[in-house]
Design a protein that fits this description.
The complex is a heterodimer of chains A (572) and B (146). Chain A is mainly α and 572 residues long. Chain A has helices spanning 16-47, 61-93, 99-121, 139-169, 177-208, 217-250, 258-271, 288-322, 330-333, 343-366, 378-384, 388-408, 415-441, 467-496, 528-550; strands spanning 12-13, 55-56, 59-60, 505-506. Chain A has a single domain (13-550), classed as Cytochrome c oxidase-like, subunit I domain (Cytochrome C Oxidase, Chain A), CATH 1.20.210.10. In chain A, the strands form two sheets. A two-stranded antiparallel ribbon of chain A has the order 1-4. Chain A has a two-stranded antiparallel sheet with strand order 2-3. In chain B, the strands form two sheets. In chain B, strands 1, 2, 3, 5 and 8 form a five-stranded mixed β-sheet that branches. A five-stranded mixed β-sheet of chain B has the order 4-10-9-6-7, with no helix packed on it. The chains are: A mainly alpha (572), B alpha+beta (146).
Chain lengths: 572, 146
């Protein structure tokens, strides 16, 4: 239920230009997602040994895997972060977005996405969404991706003067929690995309164009993971904004502790970046000591998630008790699980339940030597489908539909079907992810067309012991795909329906605090000290690993993914 | 923060601390480690080979390349430590010796290393688990422990 109640401020009407741009920002990634989900399903069929082929219906396995990663994990999440931020800034600060900035940012993001899509669809960028060199993509792939990222920076830069203006106008109030959340999200994004920009602009683009012959691979990988782990918090924090700011209200309660909510966001700002080496435990060239330091800091970044688990559960308990629940666990039964008028509850709670397991398996991955058992196996894919494929994906789906409805004035149609989507998706995930992780423990590699070898009975590498888990993965993926088809049906019905409300009136349910709001004097009411600590921690944790990466004895030439001889085209 | 929140925060941090100490204990006492950092003087090698040290210890030098490992089939003794060195000739590859902790990345430009002891006789597939191009799924070698 996203309609404002008496205790909340009135809706905010977005100007027509921004409204149109925001509709594009919501709809484009959902359209692309059709392709992303399609190949997600196909991948599971290849891996289950149902498809024994390099490609299906004109799409190569690794080309599809690239599309699946880029669309689902980069395009969808970045567009959503930006459009959600645009909506939060407009509504909570009650300020119009700067038209020129908004137009520039949306154009860059849409243009970049289309530029990168061409080589991907032509099979000239089968390098997966991590684009690890020395595998080389067409330069347009890197250029398009860079434009998408810089476009999202522009959106963020456009919010800053509005935030500063609000702070001048409201000197005695801390920034609204939703605004703190989105600023932290984009501060993390901005800080962590700097190393990515260095990798792409100064290493990969000149090298893919043939201007330089060889590059330092461990350095490129270190810069990538400098970005790659904070990236997951850029995905996750918009969902946390919904959990803290909106969910308690939608459930009929209050936010248990505004202080804890702010502290959690600020701890993410401090701890989400200096942890990237935990993706590189099994690589040569870095001291064990520094791998251990990143392991310890990764455990640290679990703490704000523990805070969130407690605060959100306490807020929901309060809501259940207010709805008349008795006993220790009675509140769970009283929550609006199946209330079709409150779809955000269903999308949130399904994501939260999935994330319990996503978080625990994440701690397993972070665990230094324990990672030796599961690194690069199906366990990893099983894990992150319970994080980015769990709370992140479900909040993006639920909130995208809400935003579209508010921006166009068209009420969501097929409301019962809509709340079935998150639960069906959760069922699919709870088949898919355990099967994938079990397969990983048996040694199944991730990102591999197993239908051509390990799951092909006619191959000398056939592994009969992998068949049950791989089949189960396929069944889980089928259920997930079904959930997405239902979701698409709700979209189509909503688009086809009439507009019954004025277009562009946005409003978000906003929970009051159960405990008192924080005061301006509190350390959690400020942002700057936390940014300073974050920068210090980054410098300490990355100085030595980067120095070690620079010492790599040899550099590497570029390779096309289908050719074992180097793609030498150096123009001197 | 209220009392309950403080309790939860201390409990969660303490639990993570215990987990971390358990990892350190496994690394120090049981010698379950991540790959070490070899000095930069150790240059990547281009040919795979098998060495036997004077004391009988086996050293395997693997070159990962599109889309095979060199050497492809190696016999090793059961129950004896084996040193694995790993170099990548072209792109990044993975190296996962099944049912063991020898789970390594083969990174162009640097040499990776790990020591493993196979306690049971059998055929152990070594699987490339990092995408390395169009025939990645066929990149398998075998270690025969006897």
């Amino acid at each position: 239920m996203l309609a404002p109640t008496k205790s909340e401020q009135a809706s905010y009407t977005v100007a027509p230009l921004s409204r149109t741009l925001m509709v594009i920002e919501v709809v484009l990634p959902i359209v692309l997602l059709v392709l992303g989900i399609y190949h997600g399903f196909l991948q599971a069929l290849y891996r289950a040994g149902i498809i024994h082929s390099g490609s299906f219906a004109g799409l190569n396995y690794y080309q599809g895997l690239t599309l699946h990663g880029v669309i689902n994990a980069v395009v969808l999440t970045t567009f959503f972060g930006v459009v959600f931020g645009n909506a939060l800034i407009s509504y909570y600060l009650r300020k119009a977005l700067i038209p020129a900035v908004h137009l520039t940012s949306t154009s860059m993001m849409v243009g970049g996405t289309l530029i990168a899509a061409v080589p991907m669809l032509l099979g000239k960028a089968d390098v997966l969404y991590t684009f690890y060199p020395p595998l080389k993509a067409h330069p347009a792939f890197y250029i398009g991706a860079a434009l998408l990222v810089v476009g999202s920076w522009v959106a963020f830069f456009g919010w800053i003067p509005l935030v500063r203006q609000w702070m001048r106008e409201n000197p005695s109030h801390p920034l609204p929690l939703a605004i703190v959340g989105i600023l932290v999200t984009f501060l993390i994004w901005f800080l962590c995309t700097i190393p990515l920009a260095i990798e792409v602009l100064f290493m990969l683009i000149p090298w893919s164009l043939g201007w330089v012959e060889a590059i330092n691979i461990p350095l490129a990988r270190t810069l990538f993971w400098f970005f790659g782990h904070p990236l997951v918090y850029f995905w996750l924090l918009p969902a946390y904004i919904v959990y803290y700011v909106m969910l308690p209200r939608v459930a009929g309660g209050k936010l248990y502790s505004p202080y804890a909510a702010r502290l959690a966001f600020l701890l993410f700002l401090v701890l989400s970046i200096p942890v990237g080496l935990h993706h590189q435990y099994t690589e040569p060239g870095f001291d064990r000591f520094w791998k251990g330091v990143h392991a310890l800091l990764t455990f640290g970044v679990a703490i704000p998630s523990f805070i969130t688990a407690f605060t959100v559960a306490a807020s929901l308990e309060y809501a259940g008790v207010r709805r008349g629940a008795k006993g220790l666990f009675g509140w769970m039964a009283k929550l609006p699980w199946l209330d079709a008028e409150r779809p955000i509850f269903a999308y949130s709670i399904a994501g939260l339940i999935i994330f319990i397991f996503g978080g625990i398996t994440g701690i397993v991955n972070a665990s230094y030597n324990l990672n030796q058992t599961i690194h690069n196996t199906g366990f990893i894919s099983g894990h992150f489908h319970m994080t980015v494929g769990g709370p992140v994906f479900l909040i993006i789906l639920g909130m995208s539909l809400e935003l579209f409805s508010q921006l166009t004035g068209k009420p969501i149609r097929g409301r019962g079907w809509n709340i079935a989507v998150p639960y069906l998706w959760m069922l699919g995930i709870f088949i898919f992810s355990p099967a994938m992780m079990y397969g990983g423990l048996l040694g199944q590699p991730r990102r591999t067309n197993m239908g051509l070898s390990y799951l092909d009975p006619s191959s000398p590498h056939f592994r009969a012991d992998w068949v049950p888990s791989a089949m189960l993965t396929g069944i889980g993926a089928a259920v997930m795909t079904l959930a997405f088809l239902v979701y698409l049906g709700v979209w189509i019905a909503t688009i086809a329906g009439p507009a019954t409300r004025p277009a562009g009136e946005i409003s978000f349910p906003t929970a009051e605090g159960l405990h008192p709001e924080v005061s301006m004097a509190s350390i959690v009411a400020r942002l700057r000290p936390w940014v300073v600590i974050a920068l210090l921690l980054i410098a300490v944790s990355y100085w030595e690993p980067l120095r070690q990466a620079f010492r790599t004895p040899e550099k590497a030439l570029p390779y096309e993914p289908d050719n074992p001889t180097p793609a030498l085209q150096v123009r001197k | 923060m209220d009392r309950l929140e403080k309790i939860v925060l201390v409990f969660a941090s303490g639990l993570l601390g215990v987990f971390f100490l358990a990892l350190l204990a496994a690394a120090r006492l049981q010698k379950i480690e991540v790959p070490p950092c070899l000095p930069p003087e150790v240059k990547p090698f281009k040919e795979g080979r098998v060495d036997t040290l004077p004391d009988g210890r086996r050293q395997l030098f693997y070159v990962a390349q599109m889309w095979r490992f060199d050497p492809e089939v190696v016999e090793v003794p059961v129950g004896k430590p084996i040193d694995i060195f790993l170099s990548a000739k072209d792109v990044t590859h993975g190296f996962y010796l099944s049912w063991s902790n020898a789970n390594l990345m083969a990174i162009p430009g640097a040499v990776n290393a790990y020591t493993v002891t196979l306690d049971k006789p059998g055929v152990y597939p070594i699987i490339c688990h990092e995408y390395c191009g169009s025939a990645h799924q066929n990149m398998v070698a075998y270690l025969i422990a006897q």
